Amino acid sequence: MTTIRHFEERGVPETGQRGMSSSVHSSVGQEAVPTGVCAHLSDEDYIGSTHRGHGHCIAKGVDPKRMMAELFGRTHGPNKGKGGSMHIADMSKGMLGTNGIVAGSVPLAVGAALTSKIRKLGRVAVAFFGDGGANQGVLHECMNLASVWKLPVIFCCENNGYAESTPVEYGLSVANVSDRAAAYDMPGFNVDGMDVLAVFEAAGEAVARARAGNGPALLEARTYRYYGHTVFDNPLTYRTKEEEDHWRARDPLLTFRNHMVAQGNEITAEELDGMDEEARLLMEEAVVFADASPLPEPHELYEDVYGDYPVEMMRRGANMPV
Ligand SMILES: Cc1ncc(C[n+]2csc(CCOP(=O)(O)OP(=O)(O)O)c2C)c(N)n1
Ligand SMILES: [Mg+2]
Fold first, then answer.
1. HSE value, Cβ hemisphere, 13 Å, CA-based, for 83
2. Is 86 in the pocket of ligand 1 (CB under 6 A)?
3. Which of 186, 257, 279, 322 could form a Cys-Cys staple with 2, CB 3.0–4.6 A?
4. ∠ at Cα 63 (269, 55), nearest 5°?
5. Which part of the chain is the Dehydrogenase E1 component domain (predicted)?
């Protein structure tokens, strides 16, 4: 969680200072969700992510230094600087990509889960999406299919209360996104997304079920983004300072710290401070690393667009594989 926090607090403004024209979305405030979920996954498992996906990448094990290079459009990024913040994929970590298409993660994760089932790989896939994504048609098709075929996939809704400036209550037909699980005959979990241990517990149950072959689950985590939708947005035009203060008082890092220190036997405040400093220093290194990495050459523009297999087939004039 602290690595995600430092990455966002440092990386988002640094990207802005480098004249990148793409939007960058900070997930500060939402760290407990990817952390609690991905703690149950190995590099073999898959996740699909969102436009607000830096935390998903870090929780899944993608190198923050290379991620910083990707944000700055540099060749040492996981996608050679051609993807940017909303297209960070790292197949060596089972990270199918941050994604500029709302709910775009969902069919990718369901496809990965289908592969796992057909090939008997024992892998689980998680689709992260927002409360706005919860109303996209593709999610509902995917939940239905995953339930019918009992696919090992978790639908994880990060409900941060807003889709851009639209409050969740305005656009959702039910009280909770997780209520919709019933329509697809799968379990629905609803957890406090500011409490990493609550997320960890519910995600553990959902992942264990999926891995055992019992099919999908819908996990809704209620959370909050501290900043605007993008760096260009002033959230106080659609929400109040009091609301922001309420959520900030329930900060996931602070809550976890207080809990662990009060327990007194797992980790000390000094050890937590040490981790915090380590993450801060890592981001210093990441910025230096990213700045030292070259920009892609113009001729690289058309490389890495298609995989070798279909390109070869197209050259031979064969039909695309179905
Ligand atoms: C298919 C599609 N429709 C609309 C958009 C524009 N858009 C980008 S983010 C966003 C809101 C998403 O809200 P939510 O799913 O709650 O995610 P959050 O930003 O809160 O993390 C919209 C409408 C898009 N990128 N893709
Ligand atoms: Mg949202």
1. 26
2. no
3. 279
4. 65
5. 1-298
